[in-house]
Amino acid sequence: MIPAEIPTGIPADAGVLRLDHVAVAVRHVGAAAALFGGAIGGRFLFGGDNDHQGIRVAQFALPGGMKIELISPLRDDAPVARFLERRGEGVHHLTLIVEDVEVAVARLTGLGYDVVDVDLTSPHWREAFVRPRSAFGTLLQLADSTARWDTPAASGITLDDVLAGRVVFTDDERAVLRPG
């Protein structure tokens, strides 16, 4: 329940700039890419493996500018693997780009929303999540970033490279070909 009065010192809003993408949890990125990247005309933007989180990611820009992010587990202990086991394939989260994730967290926690997994360690991608039970059944990712996420992959990285596991995200959030 949202309080009638906003507590003193809480920002006037969460600083949301835009809905960046809808993330869809899938068992195999390649199978889902046939739909989102082929049948409905999505254009591959970037992707790769996030070894820390144990996921493979591929993002597609749909006609009109909306983005879909496909995420699949690389190992059984990845959080998305547990999600798939409990809920099956489908929408995993919505990512909102905010002006400042710390301000957004202060706003939402000040209003009583359950914000978790706040990670401010990387200046290139700072994030926090609003739990689904606090957000009407929707996992919300709040993020601010110094990087552009709406342009195609650099260095000629292709969807085939991503699907073959040849691409990895670096600590500064760049997708690069794996060494060797």
UniProtKB/TrEMBL annotation:
Stretch forming the signal peptide: none
Record carries keyword Zinc: no
Origin superkingdom: Bacteria
InterPro entries xrefs: Glyas_Bleomycin-R_OHBP_Dase, MMCE/EMCE_epimerase, VOC_core
Pfam families: Glyoxalase_4 (PF13669)
Keywords for this protein: Metal-binding
Residue ranges occupied by any VOC domain in the UniProt entry: 18-145
Protein name as it appears in the record: VOC family protein
Organism this protein belongs to: Actinomycetospora aeridis
